[in-house]
## 1
Amino acid sequence: MQEHSGAITMRGNPLTLLGAKLSVGDSAPDIELLDNELNPVKLSSFKGKVCVLSVVPSLDTPVCDMQTRKFNEEAGKVGDDVAILTISMDLPFAQKRWCGAAGVDKVATFSDHRDAAFGEAYGVLIKELRLLARAIFVVDRQGTVQYIQLVKEVSEEPDYDAVLEAVKRLV
């Protein structure tokens, strides 16, 4: 498996990412994740929609909480042709509990806890923590990656405006 040392940091300390390094123009890997009811869901089930894959280490942390709430707010504005998915290593039960407590109802949350297949395929699995790095992937209706934002410092929020601009170009 490929390793990318120092690709990101946490509180200034370098971390190693595992997996493939995707580029704009690549086909989005069709990974199976678990929804909040433990049902397997393939990313290809969203084909035909523009997909924002909002990747976070854990919903139970302040920055991940803010990021997911922000995208939930934006999901109400971008229309039905866009699906916003939050992906983390959190257990599906924890994701469901968090969404209920936070009032998040427009973003779908999916878990990669079982085998870290998403983390490896998208190159965002943090070797030292077995968590996912903070990243955003925008995938077009045909399943092609059109935008990637890997947040260098895990404790910082993504550039939401850049993500939303990428989405607007595809809708």
## 2
Amino acid sequence: MSDKILIVDDEPEIANLISLYLENEGFVVFKSYTAMDALKYIDQENLDMTILDIMLPDMNGLEICKRIREKYHYPIIMLTAKGEETDKITGLTFGADDYITKPFLPLELVARVKAQLRRYKRYNIAAEPEEDIIVHAGLVINVNTHECTLNEKPLSLTPTEFSILQVLCKRIGTVVSSEELFHQVWGDEYFSKSNNTITVHIRHLREKMGDSFEDPQYIKTVWGCGYKIEK
């Protein structure tokens, strides 16, 4: 069955362009030009991804992102205007998994879409009957069911956050660079991005885990090198 993707953008030319490229790759695409229509699709369709513009006429796209995260864990890619660095960071904080800046290369967007869906499926569909579970200092990660708990309390993580935490937990005691995290999280589709992307996801993970930047119990920053979780 083909993956279902919702495009939310008030510029029909952009929505149609993205739709054309995604449909050529075999995806089922829904288009919405307003937030209200988008919310209907989100509630009625069993979506696999949303591509979401920030600037909409009736509601900020960040609010839609927040509402999606209240119910669903599928990937969200934000579309941002050139130079709106604050919107990018805010989008990631609200639960978006990736962002792409307008104007963009359609083929790059398609590659990002495939990378996000590939990772999401890998962490949500069990490859084997036996569960793959990582346990460390009160943190329990079930790779196959995409469930994570800390001290027996569930953590609601986006696919990207889950992926980053899994990589760090599988490499406990080892420093993982931002570049390596990009490769591990985004797969083969690696593009030059600001380090803010990983930094914001790490910050959001710490917030959800009740961890602190100054005295972290889990994710430690190794300046000039990367991140690690101590043994």
